[in-house]
Prior knowledge:
By secondary structure, this protein is mainly α.
Amino acid sequence: MVARPLPPGGSTGPRRDSRRADILAAFTRAVAERGYDGTNFGDLALELGISKGTIVHHFGTKDRMLRELHEGYMRRRLAEVQVVWARLTGPAERLAAFVHLGVRYQVVDRTATVAFQREVLRFAAEPGMETSQSLRGEYRELVERVLAEGTAAGVFRPGDDRLRTLQLFGSVHWMWTWFDPAGPREVADVAASFVETFLAGVLVDRARAATLADRSGLVAQVVAEAVAAGRAEGLDGDAGHTPG
Length: 244
């Protein structure tokens, strides 16, 4: 099974009215800027000009807001993978796409990406986060499967697929601490560097890495189209906001 299809109507989570969406967006920004522990209902209410009771009415607790943040984030990522996989069928291309995507999230859906990444350890074993954990596990299993298929086809060198998957995720997870979307490094260039380094480490024919990394190549184009389609459909939590 590949990434889960979106529910009818393209929704990535619970049905939300505009006020509820505004609250969750403000919560996401706050977590990205100062972390979960530094975020409280009082500050959110003040920012939005509403009462704390309104927030409680819509969400109940901060934990529930965190769950929705994480689940919505992972559903968006799985939806993008589904689009990419429809266009790219080879294991090398699919693996390169995972790396391109992982880097581009520092610009696309950046606020939710930072909020997700800085609090990922809180997601690991908290009660009530089972759906979040399942979605994250589904994404990880897709990468492991691509690695296994590539090895079986003689495209990738044999190795520990779980360990290599963790290495891939680890290489991009802390980018939020140093990557500045307004800085001198363009995200496409950073993605190309990451892809070439990682793919050269697993490919049997290492010379292919440069083509897969090419910021103007097929893989990069498909990834860019997939994330652009997500933004156009409102699946990007930062849609309408300038990444920063």
